Amino acid sequence: MKLETLQALNASRAARRAAVVVTDLQTGRAEAFVEGDRFPDEWSAVISGALRSGRPALAMIEERSLFINVHLPPPRLVVIGAVHISQALSRFAPVAGFDMTIIDPRTAFATTERFRDVELIAEWPDDVLAGRPLDRYTALAALTHDPKIDDYPIRAALEAGCFYVGALGSRKTHASRTERLQGAGVGQEAIERIKAPIGLDIGAASPVEIAVAILAEIIAALRNRDVDGQGGAR
């Protein structure tokens, strides 16, 4: 691998940006494209597929045999609220390959006894996210039912372009949330990205079942996310 290709990959990893390396198997020539770069239109479909799946691919394009190797940042799940659903998610999400963080300023809930094997931060989300910004490869699940805790991270997730933003609560609760977000200047298009009620509609009742529904919805969002902004020449 050429030095400039390695440098591009290291830079994209440090910035939590996606990168692909396209290698012509006949000539051995490799080109690296970092998220936001332009690449040939004829490569768009195969590169977009690799970016969604995270898996390498072989393609024959214009009589050229190409190997597409994709480098994605590890997906993150940030959960707002140290609640029973979060306890179940803390067991499931790491198994599914997600780095997980739980944020809740309520120290009565955010205890190491309840969350032993996951990063737990007992601080206000506003303070935490100021130093640990969200990004396109982060899913955010707001689970406290408390606007004082949930609303700021929801806004931050929408602004950061998180691939998934979900919030616990009934449709009535979400209607009130929508009014608050609109009052804070959040546009309707962004608000419509919020998954609320959170989780796939599988008839989930218990915290464990709700956690399964949420994680399934997050995985679906990850594998079907919009990658149009990640390089296709227009």
TrEMBL record:
Gene3D superfamilies recorded: NAD(P)-binding Rossmann-like Domain (3.40.50.720)
UniProt cross-references to Pfam families, sorted A to Z: XdhC_C (PF13478)
UniProt domain XdhC Rossmann: residue ranges: 77-218
Positions in coiled-coil regions: none
InterPro entries referenced in this protein's UniProt entry, alphabetically: MoCofactor_Util/Proc, XdhC_Rossmann_dom
UniProt-recorded name of the protein: Xanthine dehydrogenase accessory factor
Organism expressing this protein natively: Sinorhizobium kostiense
